[in-house]
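Q: I have 185 residues here and want to know how they pack in 3D. Can you give me a structure?
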Amino acid sequence: MVESKVSKRYAKSLLDLAEQTGHLERAYADMKLVHATLAASRDLDAMFRSPVIGTDKKLGVINAVFGTSVGELVSKFMKLITEKGREAHLMAIADSFVKLYNLRKGITEAVVTSATMLSPDARERVLAIVKQNVGGEVQLKEVVNPDLIGGFMLRIGDRQIDTSILTQVRKMRKEFGKNLYVKDF
């Protein structure tokens, strides 16, 4: 997701305020919920991005969807950004908030993509490998992609390890596509 300066600034402001007021952990959980909710519902995200829908309707939707499931700080924050006309950035703000929180707490996020769900044993081995390489606390996110056929892809920040069969098949297809008996110009 592309983060704008606006989303980073709002996320940092909320993070600082939550830390000062002692509500950092609750705000973190709430912003993860906001991000997950918006990511799961394209219609909801599109509604917040729509310039046609009025502020009053958007505030009503915030109350209906997030009502008592988020704390007072995040609820007031969402209302504030809606009143300021920044609600189109809500998902990016939530994403930036989670990233800033993880950075501040020294938490590394790793994403493992496999053809099937990892067994608990495999999950623990992957987690141990990641912890050994990065140190500190690690949050492991699992993604299932049956197209991989087998193996896995592990992404930690900007580094990626790809042992999937799909990638190996693509490499072989590329190699077999070369004609060794015709000179390339």
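Q: Anything worth noting?
A: The chain is about 60% helix and 15% strand. The radius of gyration is 21 Å.
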